[in-house]
Amino acid sequence: MKTLETLVKRVKADIDALSIEVGRAVSARNDILAEKASCAASTEVESTQFDGSPLSALGLAPYLERQKARQAELDEALSYAERAHEECTKALSEAYAELKKLEYLLAQQKLKAAKAAEQAEQAGFDERSSQMHARKSSLR
């Protein structure tokens, strides 16, 4: 029974660690989404300030290329973050399932132990009862 209790404690610790990792993955994903929105807004602002002159066109084209490249990097980072979040969530679900199995096994072991103790106690009562009956019968 101690082994199962130890396993339950370990799985609970794993669940705590995985919960933290899920939180980190969500935070990273949210940070990336915020950065993507910031880049998109910055690009929009810069595009609206374009006055059509050849000199500003020389500066705007490389800026837009850099922003496109940055968006591509952020898209890739977002896919990694989402994959990490999915993996952590899956691992967390598996850990919860494992915890429920272990808790069920532990409850079954405790139930068996209680039943065995009850049977031993009943056997003791039966033995004492038969001894008392034998004494009463011998006194008559």
Q: List the uncertain runs.
A: none
What does the largest sheet look like?
A: none
**H/E element string?**
HH
Q: Total number of β-strand segments?
A: 0
Q: What name does CATH use for the topology? A: Helix Hairpins
Alpha carbon gyration radius: 34 Å
Average residue pLDDT: 89
Amount of beta strand: under 5%
Tally of helical runs: 2
Protein structure class? mainly alpha
Alpha-carbon distance between the termini?
Answer: 50 Å
- Named at the architecture level, the CATH assignment is Orthogonal Bundle
What's the structural domain tally?
1
Q: Helical proportion?
A: over 70%
Shape: rod-shaped
Reading off the top of the CATH hierarchy, the class is best stated as: Mainly Alpha
Please outline what is shown here.
With 140 residues, the protein is mostly helical. The protein has helices at 2-48, 54-139. It is rod-shaped.
Explain what the structure shows.
The chain is an all-alpha fold. It has a single domain (2-107), classed as Helix Hairpins. It has 2 helices and no strands. It has helices spanning 2-48, 54-139. The longest helix has 86 residues, at 54-139.
Short key terms for the protein model shown above:
140 residues, mainly alpha, Helix Hairpins, 95% helix, 0% strand
How are the elements arranged and paired?
Layout: H1 2-48, H2 54-139
Helix pairs in contact: 1-2
